[in-house]
């Protein structure tokens, strides 16, 4: 914990790296605006909190030790990304001025963001690899320090993803046409398929 600023730097770099969570936040901001993207961002942050807690339990060690458990979760996550990608590729051009664009249920975005983060085994291994470098399992203050690190990571995720969403929101006026709607769906779908393929090809 003496190197807490270093943890913040490492966490920021990890969050800044484009991945399914970032793509989800960008897509929501393009479709539903900056305010409409917040439920999804909070869902991804909550998913990180849950993943970190699971990583500190036997589940994280099971994934690290068992090739079968890792493979099962890997294909579950890749399958979900493939589903999202195909769904977007087959969808009609998104209309930014459509009424449903502003009535997307917040709980659905929140749940999608949480599921996206929880279905990625790489996020579990991030916490397995990073946390032991900063706190010892036998520390008398382990629970408090663990909560501080996870809360800091989740807060950084909300800030960085909000910045991504703000950038995407500023591009809405350039994409507010049928061609732009097609471009958003196709680019998002292809990106989800790419991340799914990378996850499927990954190893422990």
Automatic annotation (TrEMBL):
<dbReference type="GO" id="GO:0015171">
    <property type="term" value="F:amino acid transmembrane transporter activity"/>
</dbReference>
<dbReference type="Pfam" id="PF01810">
    <property type="entry name" value="LysE"/>
</dbReference>
<dbReference type="InterPro" id="IPR001123">
    <property type="entry name" value="LeuE-type"/>
</dbReference>
<feature type="transmembrane region" description="Helical">
    <location>
        <begin position="149"/>
        <end position="171"/>
    </location>
</feature>
<protein>
    <submittedName>
        <fullName>Lysine transporter LysE</fullName>
    </submittedName>
</protein>
<dbReference type="GO" id="GO:0005886">
    <property type="term" value="C:plasma membrane"/>
</dbReference>
<keyword id="KW-0812">Transmembrane</keyword>
<keyword id="KW-0472">Membrane</keyword>
<feature type="transmembrane region" description="Helical">
    <location>
        <begin position="49"/>
        <end position="73"/>
    </location>
</feature>
<feature type="transmembrane region" description="Helical">
    <location>
        <begin position="124"/>
        <end position="143"/>
    </location>
</feature>
<keyword id="KW-1003">Cell membrane</keyword>
<keyword id="KW-1133">Transmembrane helix</keyword>
């Amino acid at each position: 914990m003496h190197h807490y600023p270093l943890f913040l730097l490492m966490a920021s770099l990890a969050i800044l790296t484009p991945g399914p969570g970032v793509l989800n936040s960008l897509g929501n901001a393009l479709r539903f605006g900056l305010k409409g993207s917040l439920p999804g961002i909070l869902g991804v942050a909550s998913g990180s909190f849950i993943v970190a807690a699971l990583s500190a339990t036997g589940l994280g060690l099971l994934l690290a030790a068992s090739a079968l458990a890792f493979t099962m979760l890997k294909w579950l996550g890749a399958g979900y990304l493939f589903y999202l990608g195909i769904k977007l590729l087959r969808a009609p051009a998104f209309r930014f001025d459509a009424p449903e664009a502003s009535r997307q249920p917040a709980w659905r975005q929140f749940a999608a963001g949480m599921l996206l983060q929880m279905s990625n085994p790489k996020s579990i291994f991030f916490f397995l690899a990073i946390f032991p470098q900063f706190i010892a399992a036998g520390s008398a203050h382990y629970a408090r320090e663990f909560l501080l690190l996870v809360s800091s990571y989740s807060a950084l995720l909300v800030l960085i993803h909000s910045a991504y969403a703000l950038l995407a929101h500023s591009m809405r006026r350039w994409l507010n046409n049928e061609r732009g709607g097609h471009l958003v769906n196709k680019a998002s779908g292809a990106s989800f398929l790419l991340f799914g393929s990378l996850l499927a090809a990954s190893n422990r």
